[in-house]
Specification:
Blueprint lengths: L1 H21 L7 H27 L8 H20 L2 H4 L5 H25 L6 H24 L1 H32 L4 H12 L3 H10 L4 H27 L7
């Protein structure tokens, strides 16, 4: 619930705070940033929900090859139409075209994969659960590699400072999340959840905004470093808390 709420609020809250906190340092275009976040977060979520229903829906229509082929063709046609329409025709909403196009193509690929693997080859239905984490990890590694390569000179000069800042940012998030939750009378289990939610942030979205909205590989360097570090620290913290059972609420 917390992640869902923060994700839905991010298209408005993130540009607002960037405008307030960083507007004097770099030009921040509120609407452009909001649409970029919608393009990177909300559009994939909507497409993902549709793909999830197609993959794991129990109704007969989701097992019907003809219906799946229809969904695949509609998705492919939608992607083609969005590419053929001139970008100027979208007006201010042109930022969403790339995300919508990629989303429709991926939906088409998902349906095609189900047709081949689940229906034609009669393989297990949970194959996507095993494949997607690897795809996601590969994508994150690719993004980090690109950003690091483009900012290699800056990394050599200020790399230590950025790494230290990322570690402090992450640690502060854990501490504030946990102890403010405790101050709000949440039990220890819920406080741990809040700590993880606050300490782990969307470094991928931050890198994307830095590259697309700010047009700055330098700005993308910090979240590119923060992302791998938070995965390491989050895993350590989760393993520690897994071994240490929360105390019962008094």
């Amino acid at each position: 619930t917390m992640t869902a709420c923060s994700t839905l609020a991010s298209p408005v809250v993130t540009p607002f705070y960037m405008k307030v906190l960083a507007g004097k340092l770099v030009p921040i275009h509120f609407l452009s940033m909001m649409l970029s976040i919608l393009n990177m977060i909300v559009v994939p979520i909507v497409v993902g929900l549709i793909a999830n229903r197609v993959l794991y829906g129990h109704k007969k229509v989701y097992q019907n090859p003809a219906a799946l082929i229809a969904v695949m063709l509609i998705s492919l046609a939608g992607a083609a139409i969005t590419l053929l329409i001139p970008l100027s025709a979208f007006g201010v909403w042109g930022t969403l075209r790339s995300g919508l196009t990629v989303g429709l193509v991926l939906l088409c690929a998902t349906v095609l994969a189900k047709l081949i693997i689940n229906i034609r080859l009669k393989k297990v239905s949970n194959w996507m659960d095993r494949v997607l984490p690897l795809v996601s990890m590969a994508g994150i590694c690719l993004i980090i590699a690109i950003i690091t390569a483009r900012s290699a000179d800056q990394l050599k000069t200020i790399g230590f400072a950025i790494i230290l800042a990322a570690m402090l940012h992450n640690l502060t998030g854990y501490l504030l999340g946990f102890w403010l939750a405790r101050a709000a009378k949440l039990d220890e289990r819920d406080s741990r959840t809040v700590a993880i939610e606050v300490g782990l942030q969307n470094g991928g979205m931050a890198s994307g905004l830095a590259m697309t909205v700010l047009n700055s590989a330098k700005a993308a360097l910090a979240p590119a470093i923060f992302g791998p570090w938070m995965n390491i620290s989050g895993s350590i913290l989760a393993n520690y808390w897994q071994r240490k059972k929360p105390r019962p609420q008094q």
